[in-house]
Inverse folding.
């Protein structure tokens, strides 16, 4: 059965409201495609400001290429990631990712890989879950997959739109399918939409929402109840 949101849910209208409020987003914040791969792992369970500090350390060492990371002293590489939190775990995940990347032939070979196959390869790597894999696919490989994160779940729940997919912890793949089947298949749309949700979560839809300042208040169940 095709997953559905609650009656009245309007994903396209939500996107247009977010874009009107915040404007085009320059995402993913990285200087190159490989840096996006690195950032997608480092941002797991931490704030982006911590990721930036870790990436700056890697840049100082010249460790923003797969071959350079694999050739680096593992202890020093691990220490460079300390600002990102759980840095020992992330170091091992990045080393695994770099080995896969090099063995697969880098971007030259991977760009020719079908999206489903590429996603399966990423998910087979230890420490790479659906959210991380989809962020890599969308922002590093320009594949039309939608990234579901905690901010997306929070926003949809507060809007009162999750009834059709199960309000208690809806499955990642169900929510991803909702977006991909409802919206036009467009890489830029997906990238902008996810970035706008993140921006909205930072500015208005926080853990303690600023409903009185939110342009979605009259359409949001949480805003109406505030």
């Amino acid at each position: 059965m095709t997953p559905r949101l609650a009656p009245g849910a309007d994903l396209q209208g939500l996107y247009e409201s977010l874009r009107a409020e915040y404007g085009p987003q320059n995402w993913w914040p990285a200087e190159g495609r490989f840096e996006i791969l690195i950032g997608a792992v480092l941002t797991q369970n931490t704030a982006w400001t911590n990721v930036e500090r870790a990436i700056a350390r890697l840049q100082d060492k010249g460790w923003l290429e797969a071959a350079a990371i694999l050739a680096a002293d593992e202890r020093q590489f691990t220490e460079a990631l300390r600002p990102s939190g759980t840095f020992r775990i992330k170091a091992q995940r990045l080393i695994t990712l770099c080995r896969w990347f090099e063995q697969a032939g880098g971007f030259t070979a991977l760009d020719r890989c079908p999206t489903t196959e590429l996603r399966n390869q990423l998910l087979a790597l230890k420490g790479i879950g659906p959210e991380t894999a989809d962020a890599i696919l969308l922002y590093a490989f320009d594949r039309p997959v939608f990234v579901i994160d905690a901010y997306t779940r929070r926003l949809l729940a507060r809007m009162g739109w999750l009834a059709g997919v199960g309000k208690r912890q809806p499955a990642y793949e169900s929510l991803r399918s909702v977006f991909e089947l409802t919206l036009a298949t467009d890489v830029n749309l997906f990238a902008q939409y996810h970035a706008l949700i993140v921006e909205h979560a930072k500015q208005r839809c926080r853990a303690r929402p600023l409903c009185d300042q939110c342009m979605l208040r009259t359409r949001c169940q949480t805003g109406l109840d505030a």
